[in-house]
Design a protein that fits this description.
Blueprint: E1 5-9, E2 12-16, H1 18-35, H2 41-57, H3 63-70, H4 74-86, E3 91-93, E4 99-102, E5 105-106, E6 113-115, E7 121-124
Antiparallel strand pairs: 1-2, 3-4, 4-5, 5-7, 6-7
Helix pairs in contact: 2-4, 3-4
Length: 125
């Protein structure tokens, strides 16, 4: 691979200088880190639990189940879910307050299906 980037403009491919696209990738990475700065270790635990358990259970996850499974207080989990959803980061709950989507998986019907090495299948966002 020659580390080149071609930008499609209409029917034409225009080479983008390496210095420009590398600088843009660095900026994007810094922005992503800044966007996640609000997350504590417990935020990551809740998000990781949802991603792992949605495919396994195949049904929405209640805050109570998450709290019990992670040995956290129910109010703490509810606050964490509120913050994750408010920042539009990883989590979406239905009108009943149950987690139905934890990027990249969802129990909602989508045109995308993922099969894990364990054989579990789930819809993907």
């Amino acid at each position: 691979m020659n580390n080149s980037l071609l930008l499609g403009v209409g029917r034409y491919l225009i080479p983008v200088p390496r210095l420009i696209w590398q600088r843009q990738i660095t900026k994007s990475g810094q922005g992503a880190r800044a966007g996640l700065a609000f997350m504590t270790a417990d935020h990551h635990r809740v998000r990781d639990f949802a991603v792992r358990e949605l495919p396994r259970l195949g049904k929405p996850l209640s805050p109570e189940l998450i709290a019990e499974s992670l040995a956290l207080l129910h109010q703490q989990v509810t606050l964490i879910l509120d913050e994750l959803e408010q920042h539009m980061t990883f989590i979406f709950r239905n009108t009943q307050g149950l987690v139905v989507w934890a990027y990249p998986v969802t129990i909602d019907c989508t045109p995308h299906r993922v099969t894990f090495s364990t054989g579990e299948q789930v819809n993907a966002a």
